[in-house]
Structures are given as structure tokens and as C-alpha cells.
Design a protein that fits this description.
Layout lengths: L2 H4 L3 E5 L4 H15 L3 E6 L10 E6 L5 H14 L2 E5 L6 H11 L6 H8 L1 H10 L7 E4 L2 H11 L3 E5 L9 E3 L5 H13 L7 E5 L5 E9 L2 E12 L7 E7 L5 H14 L5 E10 L2 E8 L7 H9 L3 H9 L13 E7 L5 E8 L1 H5 L4 E6 L6 E2 L8 H4 L2 E7 L2 H12 L2 E7 L6
Parallel strand pairs: 1-2, 1-4, 2-3
Antiparallel strand pairs: 5-8, 6-7, 6-8, 9-10, 9-12, 10-11, 11-14, 12-13, 14-18, 15-17, 15-19, 16-18
Helix pairs in contact: 2-11, 3-4, 4-5
């Protein structure tokens, strides 16, 4: 067999760098590098990524000109099969880059619709996908009128953000000014839209459906059950994926209908919904692999590699969605009870040595770091100390093991001094 027939295809990856990216997306790059020759565009010199890539260009992916220049430079040196990203903010720029380089991929217009929650709600309604009533607001007055029309409680969120940034529940009119200020602050950090969305509150358990779409056909490969933190915020503090979860059959058709409504014909999608009276209602479609290691949980539970499926569909190749595992996995995201200075974080190593089901423990904050919760002006990602992942034969057992591991984990925070009046 000649070298040309055995050489791996070349995939262009557009990604961020840094230690947090290694902790939460390192598994993606490792998975893809086994099947592709990966070349990278990132906003800083790669560090840990060098073990998995063959070439790179440094450019800010949010700078259209710089991204196009970097893409053309890599295309001149390599025969690119496709381009992919698993970063929410880069979805539209990468779609534009694919068009400029003549590579397969969704159109920028489709990605813009997926990124804009207001546009997505309109498309869901047009195609009969069960969703939430929603209205956009540019001012507190418009938000008040929308909330009165929809009815309290309502959810306020930036129209084009992710990661639960700026998302808050408002139960009554008296809470609206503070809620609108919180959502507006999250929206103001975005680059695509600074509007706030006022939505109907969907009362029920939250889940996500991990999907792969190839040539317009969407396959739901796993359902993720979520645990949320303290109200009025919607931060996710735990996830569990069970390969045998019977809920998958219920949510899969609605997830596929939502993907189709947005016009997405290829890629991996993380489709969020709530079960209201047992029936799925759409929250949003994220046109990339879910965060918080959800793609890794799906692999541990089913054996399906979502990062590899994302690469395959980006290159116009048929992904392998054959399950090879039949178990469960859970992640617990580690947060302080209050804002302050992290003074200790460690796991009992004797316990860890005797717990083969403890798949991974990762810390993203060092002692001496400040951890700031949303109610104190921070956000849950900056407050996050790390995570632990457990496995088991069922989702319930995997989550119970996570509870057990937490009992052997030390997290100490010195509270922040109250502000002087």
C-alpha cells in the first residue's frame, strides 16, 4: 500500500487555547487526532495541543480578515478535507471560513439562526416544534411589556450567548429591573446581539439530546439528564448519561425536528429541552458538541466518539455511530458554597486508589485563586473549581458514586469580606 493511500485526511480545527480548554476540550482533540492530520488556528501559540497537531496559524477567530488569512495559509500548505470548531462563539466565523475555502459545512446563515435564540424560536414556531413563547427586548420597558404578555414567571437571557451566561428567572414584576440588568450585562459582552430575550418559563426537568446530523438525517445518540444549581440562575452543576435511558426515544424526534427547523444538515448538535408534564419543549439547539465534558460522558456510556463524528461530518464523511458500550457516566461540577479565596482543594488518594469507577478528577483553580459566584458579580464558570467523573452500570449508580466521591473531596474557601458601605 502506498503512502498516499494510507495518509490521514487533513482537518482544520479552529479553537481557543489555555488550560481550561485542555481540561474541557482536550478529549475532543485527542479523539480527532487518531483519525485526522489536524492543523490548527488559535488565538495564541499552542501549548498542550502540539502533541496532536501537525501545523498551526495564530489568529483571532473573531477577526474575519485574520481568520481568512490564516485559513488560506494553511490551505496553501495542506490539502484540507474540512474545517470544524467546538467553540460556540466561533460557529459563524468558521462557517464563513468554510465557504471562503470551498470546504463542506453549514452555511453562515444557518449558523447565525442557530446562534440567535430569537430567530431560532421563530423557526421552531414556523415548523411546529414545541418551544417556549418568547419576545425580544431592547429596554426595561419592552421587557416589562413582554413579561406581562407572556405571564410570570419568565426567563431573561441574552439573545446570542451560551453557557447560561446572563440567564435568570424573574418571578414577579418587582424583580424585573434587577433581572433585566443581569441579562443585559451578559448580552453586552456578546458580539452578535446585545438584545435580551424574555421567555416563558418551562417548569420541568432539564435534559439535552446529543445528536449527529449527516446529509440532513439526524441521529440522537444519547440523552443527558441535568442537575441545576440554586435559583434564580440556570447553571448546570451535574450531568448524567445512561446508554439505556428510555427517555431517548421520547426526546429524539423533537430534537431532530428542531435541528431540521434550523436548516442544519451536518454536524453534531447539543439540543437542550425541558420536560413539561412529561412532554419535551425546546430551549435551544447548540450546533456543536456540548460543554462540561458531555461528549466524553456519551463516549464512556455508549462508545460513540462525538468529536470524531463532528470531524467526519465536517469533511462530508459518514460518521460511525455504532454503540460499543452499554453503561452510564456522570460528572459533578465543583463549586464553592460562597464566593471567596480558594484555600484548599484535594481528593483523598487512598479512596481514589480503591475506586476504579472514579474516571477523572480535574481542578481548574489553584489555591489562592478568587472564586466569584453570579450573585457576587461573577459567573459559574469562573467560580468553578473543577469536576469529577464517575461511571457505573446505570445512571443512578454513577451519580451515587459521584456523591460518594464528593465525601472524600476537600474544598475550602475563605469568604470574601463584605463590601464597605
Amino acid at each position: 500500500m502506498t503512502e498516499s493511500t494510507t495518509r490521514k485526511p487533513t482537518l482544520l480545527l479552529v479553537c481557543a487555547t489555555g488550560s481550561d480548554m485542555e481540561a474541557y476540550r482536550g478529549y475532543c482533540l485527542e479523539s480527532v487526532a487518531g483519525a485526522y492530520d489536524v492543523v490548527l488556528i488559535c488565538q495564541a501559540e499552542p501549548t498542550w495541543e502540539r502533541a496532536y497537531i501537525s501545523d498551526f496559524e495564530v489568529a483571532d477567530p473573531m477577526d474575519a480578515h485574520a481568520l481568512a488569512e490564516a485559513g488560506r495559509a494553511l490551505a496553501a500548505r495542506h490539502e484540507l478535507a474540512g474545517v470544524v470548531t467546538w467553540i460556540e462563539w466561533y460557529l459563524v466565523p468558521v462557517a464563513r471560513l468554510a465557504r471562503q475555502l470551498g470546504l463542506p459545512g453549514p452555511s453562515p446563515e444557518v449558523m447565525e439562526a442557530a446562534r440567535n435564540k430569537a430567530t431560532a424560536r421563530t423557526l421552531f414556531a414556523r415548523h411546529g416544534v414545541p418551544s417556549a413563547a418568547a419576545m425580544t427586548a431592547r429596554s426595561l420597558l419592552e421587557a416589562a411589556l413582554a413579561a406581562e404578555t407572556i405571564g410570570y414567571p419568565v426567563v431573561l437571557k441574552p439573545a446570542a450567548r451560551a453557557g447560561s451566561i446572563g440567564v435568570i428567572r424573574v418571578n414577579q414584576a418587582e424583580e424585573l429591573p434587577a433581572g433585566f440588568a443581569f441579562a443585559s450585562a451578559g448580552a453586552s459582552a456578546g458580539t452578535e446581539s446585545t438584545r435580551v430575550l424574555v421567555e416563558e418559563y418551562l417548569d420541568g426537568p432539564e435534559v439535552s439530546v446529543e445528536c449527529v446530523t449527516h446529509q440532513g438525517r439526524t441521529t440522537a445518540v444519547a440523552v443527558t439528564r441535568k442537575t441545576l444549581g440554586a435559583e434564580p440562575y440556570f447553571e448546570e452543576v451535574a450531568h448524567a448519561v445512561d446508554a439505556a435511558d428510555p427517555l431517548l426515544a421520547t426526546v429524539a424526534p423533537v430534537a431532530a425536528a428542531a435541528v431540521k427547523a434550523l436548516g442544519i444538515t451536518a454536524g453534531v448538535q447539543h439540543v437542550e429541552m425541558r420536560l413539561v408534564d412529561g412532554r419535551p419543549r425546546l430551549i435551544e439547539v447548540n450546533a456543536r458538541i456540548g460543554g462540561d465534558m458531555i461528549g466524553h460522558l456519551a463516549h464512556l456510556a455508549t462508545g460513540i466518539h462525538l468529536p470524531l463524528a463532528a470531524a467526519d461530518t465536517a469533511c462530508g464523511r459518514t460518521p460511525d455511530l455504532t454503540p460499543t458500550h452499554h453503561r452510564a457516566a456522570a460528572i459533578r461540577l465543583l463549586y464553592p458554597e460562597y464566593s471567596g479565596t480558594l484555600t484548599a482543594r484535594h481528593l483523598d488518594q487512598e479512596f481514589a486508589a480503591g475506586a476504579p469507577w472514579l474516571e477523572q478528577v480535574s481542578f481548574q483553580r489553584e489555591t489562592g485563586d478568587q472564586v466569584l459566584l453570579p450573585q457576587d458579580g461573577g459567573d459559574m464558570f469562573r467560580a468553578r473549581i473543577g469536576f469529577l467523573i464517575t461511571t457505573g452500570p446505570t445512571g443512578e449508580i454513577a451519580q451515587a458514586r459521584a456523591d460518594e466521591a464528593l465525601g472524600h473531596l476537600t474544598l475550602a474557601v475563605e469568604p470574601s469580606a463584605p463590601a464597605r458601605v
